[in-house]
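Thanks for the sequence, V.! I ran UPF0125 protein FIV36_12050 right away. Repeating your input here for the record:
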Amino acid sequence: MVEIEVVHAAPDRQVLLTVAVPVGTSLRAALQMSGMAAQFPELNLADCPLGIFGKVITAPEVRAVQPGDRIEIYRPLLADPKEVRRLRAAKAARARQQDS
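Predicted structure:
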């Protein structure tokens, strides 16, 4: 058995579960075994993007868990960070022009 953590942060709460899974279990299978679906029934665990310690895993169905892994379940972005920064910079530029 391999001990791992599974974590998800929703806008209103975060949950971290420690789970023991068989050696060779894929990330996606470990996620299904974790019980996270009971905590967040709105999550689609079959399709959601996953990562380990901040690094996105492109093939979670293939990659096997390693001892100590922390599987992170990612939420979709509501806004493109580059677009948000661009809008903030434009707003700051307008404010500077009005102050001049």
